[in-house]
Write a structure and sequence with these properties.
heterodimer, A: mainly alpha, c-terminal domain of poly(a) binding protein, two-stranded antiparallel ribbon, globular, B: alpha+beta, about 15% strand
Chain lengths: ~280, ~110
């Protein structure tokens, strides 16, 4: 643990807290459902959730240790700056390969400048945000609005697959294409994909990971509040009833599956075209 | 101020192409070269995004080679499209600087 910087330790504690919260909620829900003998989480789903939460913490620890090992030649001043740039790059639209390439270039620049006895701020300037924005723009990610819409479409498709898959694993007696998901739960994907995800990226970019982690929790609480309000006061309105209690089969056959995958690929293609056009206009 | 920054970036782009037309260099040396030519306030944070942009536009290309310090280093070269862009920049600069100098001489 001594190898980790103060910021890395804070990120690790945050991931442990969030994962602990997820495990606690899942176990609580599992036990409560068993006690009331109502349908709850399947054993396998509970185990998957716990494994994923533990893996998330391990991933955070390994990523931070790897970052420190890769930059072991940097002085604490340079490492602090490098770590900040690395975290801010995670809040950009750049791909993993582009981030890796950029960080490798920056590490080389830092090592050369350090050898010459220059300060880290002399290399990056005072405004790290501006530096990261310039890098992002240079890769062709100028229109964040359009990019976020295409990413939102991709998240929505993944969310639908995840929901139907979840139902399939929970009720293994029916086939994947026969699973129906709640309309209200499927509608939850809109605020998550088109509002929550861009807000989280923006907050990570501003070095506020704790606030970013609060976004999905806040959306979930708002959703619970909305559903409780509907159940208490508005359930007699027909369309509200359909929204709250209705179910939909989003992937009823292989053709719809292909259609959703096609939509995902189309969004990826539009993202690529948008970047190519943007690079030409730089 | 923003306009000044944009103008400087445009000029730097031309200067970087001019420097690289003399031969291949890596980013850190390009910055040192610019400083030696009088751009004392320029740092890597300004030049690195310009190099990436020029490379994405096909005006530069790079070769990655191992460095003595650890990570592979990018050595930039100017492409044929970059040489054409440099010619356009030089013509444009000669034209504009001539006009601006005339105004300054005659009025100020």
């Amino acid at each position: 643990m001594k190898k980790l910087s103060a910021k890395s330790r804070w990120m690790l504690y945050l991931s442990i807290f969030i994962s602990g919260l997820v495990i606690f909620t899942a176990v609580f829900y599992f036990i409560a459902a068993q006690k009331s003998q109502s349908s709850g989480l399947d054993n396998i789903i509970l185990i998957i959730i716990i494994i994923l939460a533990v893996l998330a913490v391990l991933f955070m620890l390994l990523t931070r240790l790897k970052l420190r090992k890769r930059t072991s030649a940097l002085s604490p001043e340079y490492f602090e700056m490098y770590e900040e740039i690395s975290d801010k790059l995670n809040g950009t639209s750049m791909s993993m390969m582009e981030k890796k390439e950029t960080l490798s270039d920056i590490l080389d620049l830092f090592l050369l400048a350090q050898k010459d006895g220059r300060s880290a701020e002399d290399v990056t300037g005072k405004n790290i945000d501006d530096f990261v924005t310039q890098i992002q723009d240079s890769f062709g990610y100028r229109s964040r609005f359009l990019h976020n819409i295409f990413v939102g479409v991709q998240y929505s498709v993944l969310y639908l697959f995840l929901m139907q898959g979840f139902e399939y694993f929970s009720q293994s007696d029916a086939g994947f294409f026969n699973q129906e998901i709640s309309i209200s739960t499927s509608m939850l994907l809109l605020p998550i994909a088109f509002v929550g995800a861009p807000m989280m990226t923006g907050l990570i970019r501003k070095n506020k990971p704790a606030l970013a982690m609060l976004i999905p929790i806040a959306i979930f609480i708002l959703y619970i509040g909305l559903m409780e309000t509907i159940n208490a006061f508005f359930l007699d309105i027909p369309w509200v009833y359909t929204f709250a209690e209705g179910k939909v089969n989003a992937i009823p056959n292989v053709w719809m599956l292909v259609l959703w995958i096609g939509l995902f690929v189309l969004a990826a293609l539009f993202k690529w075209i948008q970047r190519k056009t943007s690079v030409k206009k730089l | 101020m923003a306009q000044e920054t944009q103008m400087l970036k445009g000029l730097l782009q031309g200067c970087i192409l001019a420097i690289l037309s003399a031969g291949e260099m890596y980013g850190y040396i390009i910055v040192e070269s610019l400083k030696n030519y009088g751009f004392a306030d320029i740092n890597e944070a300004t030049v690195y995004p310009i190099l990436t942009r020029l490379e994405k536009q096909g005006l530069l290309r790079y070769d990655k080679r191992p460095s003595e310090l650890g990570p592979p280093r990018k050595y930039y070269n100017i492409t044929d499209a970059g040489l054409n862009e440099l010619k356009l920049f030089r013509d444009c600069w000669n034209d504009i600087s001539g006009k601006v100098n005339t105004i300054i001489k005659e009025i100020l």
